[in-house]
């Protein structure tokens, strides 16, 4: 998969960066003794999308640390990747219906927190994620 419209083949570099990030996460995960002796299900793309979403809602040093780890230049580049992911990999591509790759995301936030309307819009429009307010204290 190549990312859309980046100058100087940055799309290809970005895919290579995603692979590097996946391998970094995998090496860390599988370095733990408890994971060496058990079966582990690891979905690096899901983790990268979630970390990208968190980066989009973050500011300052936290955002920069996430961008550095994910090897993206900006949250706009992350949103472009996620949009491309939805249009190519997750679209309904079969004559009989169904996505090429089922991918379900949701964000559950404690009802005592409020989110900026701009972030809610990004979550809904760019990430195609359902946002739900939940009572984590009593339920």
UniProtKB/TrEMBL annotation:
Domain Serpin residue range list: 18-137
Domain of life: Eukaryota
Similarity comment text for this entry: Belongs to the serpin family.
Pfam families reported for this sequence: Serpin
Gene3D superfamilies (UniProt xref): Antithrombin, subunit I, domain 2
Organism per entry: Trifolium pratense
InterPro entries: Serpin_dom, Serpin_fam, Serpin_sf, Serpin_sf_1
GO cellular component assignments: extracellular space
Record-level Gene Ontology MF annotations: serine-type endopeptidase inhibitor activity
Residues annotated as signal peptide: none
Protein name: Serpin-ZX-like protein
């Amino acid at each position: 998969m190549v990312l859309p419209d980046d100058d100087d083949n940055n799309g290809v570099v970005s895919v290579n960066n995603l692979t590097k990030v996946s391998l970094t996460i995998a090496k860390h995960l599988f370095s733990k003794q408890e994971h060496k002796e058990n079966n582990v299900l690891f979905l690096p793309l899901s983790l990268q999308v979630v970390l990208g979403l968190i980066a989009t809602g973050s500011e300052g040093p936290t955002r920069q640390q996430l961008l550095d780890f994910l090897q993206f230049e900006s949250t706009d580049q992350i949103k472009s990747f996620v949009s491309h992911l939805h249009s190519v990999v997750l679209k309904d591509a079969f004559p009989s219906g169904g996505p090429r790759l089922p991918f379900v995301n949701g964000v559950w936030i404690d009802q005592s927190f409020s989110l900026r309307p701009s972030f809610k819009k990004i979550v809904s429009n760019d990430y195609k994620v359902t946002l739900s307010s939940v009572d984590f204290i009593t339920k």
